Amino acid sequence: MSLRWLFILLPILYVAGNVYISIRGWQALPHLPIGVKVALSFFYWICVLSLFGAFLFRGLDMPATLAQIISRVGTGWLVFTLYMVLALLLFEALRVLNIPIRHSFLISFALVVCVLGYGYYRYQHPDTKVINMVINKDIDTGDTRPFRVVAISDVHLGYGTGKRMLARYVDRINAERPDLVLIGGDLIDNDATPLFQTRMEEELSRVNAPMGIYMVPGNHEYISGIEACERFIARTPITLLRDSVVVLPNGIQIVGRDDRSDKRRQSVRQLTETLDKSRPILLLDHQPYDLALTTQAGVDLQFSGHTHRGQVWPLSWLVDRMFELSYGMKRVGDCVIYVSSGLSLWGPPFRIGTNSEMVVFNLTFNNGK
């Protein structure tokens, strides 16, 4: 199925699912006065349609709080619809099997609310994944302690992940006392406007990493408008790498590959062919495709994001089959590839069956040993 048809089919399924839920809800509350039912239906469909408002109103000059409410309710209603339809269909199946359950609509609603509450808690409490890794190459340093890298991806700053949440993320990063911070794309969500409005550069400027902060664009930087994103990032201490390489004072080489949205971007081989292969090479590439090419290019560590690992079950099953590596670490020879599920998320503020995470790499080098 082409992407075009997918974008046509998904809204149809979303509306159809909500029609089904509203019919079952109307049937489940026969004793309510008609005026109350109409009021509840009106409120329900405002929530349903807020999803379309979240996209249609993007980029409009409106109060940030109102835009955030529309975004959270609209995208959150996607997951509510998914789980409510699944729960109701389960009870339908039990009825067909001659196992009727009384008050199935109310039970479904209560279960879904509990699941979403759990998912919101998981989103608000990201994990910190610590990986100790040895790279058999030399760097220039007299320090024997591991080189500490904090790597994050998919923060999706905007109306969903706002300045207050960003402040919490910055505190978590600084608490790890990193030497280096890497951002694997999708720092910005769908529009750079709220970042300028709320001056989010103030929080990003608090990130403390002596060796610098480097990021690559993700597909959402292109959705937001790459030029506007570049203007915002220029206000921060972040260095944006687009098909470019930076060499740290200790000899570590950081390769930043542009996102697949740029059809003219360079290959991993082109970006690494002139590098010193005796020195460590770290690659940032937002979308984890063609991983075999990374292992052939002399890269020691690739960090990617993009997948969110599906964010909520059962989408995680689908994403696991879409990508060679949808989440976690894979070692091929001397190359390690890590795909993060993301520090924050896109759209619905829930993590169900997946985790938000920040990754800490403690890198130890050979240094002649």
From TrEMBL:
**Gene3D superfamilies, per this entry?**
3.60.21.10
Give the Gene Ontology MF terms in alphabetical order.
Answer: hydrolase activity
InterPro entries registered for this protein in UniProt: Calcineurin-like_PHP, Metallo-depent_PP-like, Metallophosphoesterase_sf
What residue stretches are annotated with the Calcineurin-like phosphoesterase domain? 147-309
Q: Which Pfam families match?
A: Metallophos (PF00149)
Q: What is the lineage of its organism?
A: Bacteria, Pseudomonadati, Bacteroidota, Bacteroidia, Bacteroidales
**Which residues are the signal sequence here?**
none
* Name the UniProt record assigns to this protein: Metallophosphoesterase
Supply the alphabetized keyword list.
Membrane, Transmembrane, Transmembrane helix
Spans through the membrane = 6-26, 38-57, 69-91, 103-121
Superkingdom as given in the UniProt entry:
Bacteria
